[in-house]
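Q: What would this chain look like folded?
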Amino acid sequence: MQRFEFKVIPAPKRGEKARGVKTTEDRFALALTNLMNELGAEGWDYVRADALPCEERSGFTSTKTTFQNVLVFRRAIPSLSAEAPASTRLLLQDSEPPAPPRLGPADTPPPGNAPSLGPAKLAAE
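A: My prediction, written as structure tokens:
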């Protein structure tokens, strides 16, 4: 089964200026193209764009709902079975989990009577 990790980023709000790009639509498309090419070079695949509600404060006591435009990307997480050779996979699957840590004193106390508990006494007494 293939596993994925996701990345959600705010969609650009402004276009990018470039030589020969004159209209607002072309500048915005250039900004999206540059962003998607940058993330694609890192292995991210574009999934979709969403407008999601977001509550934000408005004054001291009230809130208002706005919508945020986001872009969703995903990339595959390499699985252990795809990367590790068969011998390594068998060793990892057959090995027993480590023993839980032992709580208590580091050394076994010597046998004998424990000292009595009570107020501290000065050595001169």
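The mean pLDDT is 80.
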